[in-house]
Specification:
Elements (H helix, E strand, L loop, with lengths): L8 H38 L3 H5 L8 H10 L3 H20 L1
Length: 96
């Protein structure tokens, strides 16, 4: 039976393990992209008009802050109010 195995069996096994690791990483990457594209789509749906978005405080907040606002607040007026408060708080802290 051992004569049926290639002479470089350890190299083959190592290559197989590396391929499995790369495949697992690729699956995780695509899962993360899908998750992030879902969030990106929700962000776009919340602010479909680019001109409207650029004029709002949310355009000045970091991505993570916007995600929290989108996840926790369904009402656009509430999101806008919290975004304004976050910017105002940040401005006050930077003035100190």
């Amino acid at each position: 039976m051992s004569e049926l195995l290639p002479q470089d069996c350890p190299t083959f096994s190592q290559g197989l393990r590396q391929a499995q690791t790369r495949a697992a990483l690729a699956v995780r990457l695509y899962w993360q992209i899908g998750r992030d594209l879902e969030r990106t789509r929700a962000f776009y749906q919340a602010y479909p008009d680019e001109g409207q978005f650029a004029a709002q405080p949310v355009s000045q907040l970091p991505w993570g802050h916007n995600l929290v606002l989108l996840q926790k607040l369904k009402d656009p007026a509430q999101r806008l109010w919290y975004a304004e408060q976050a910017l105002r708080s940040n401005d006050e802290q930077s003035d100190e």
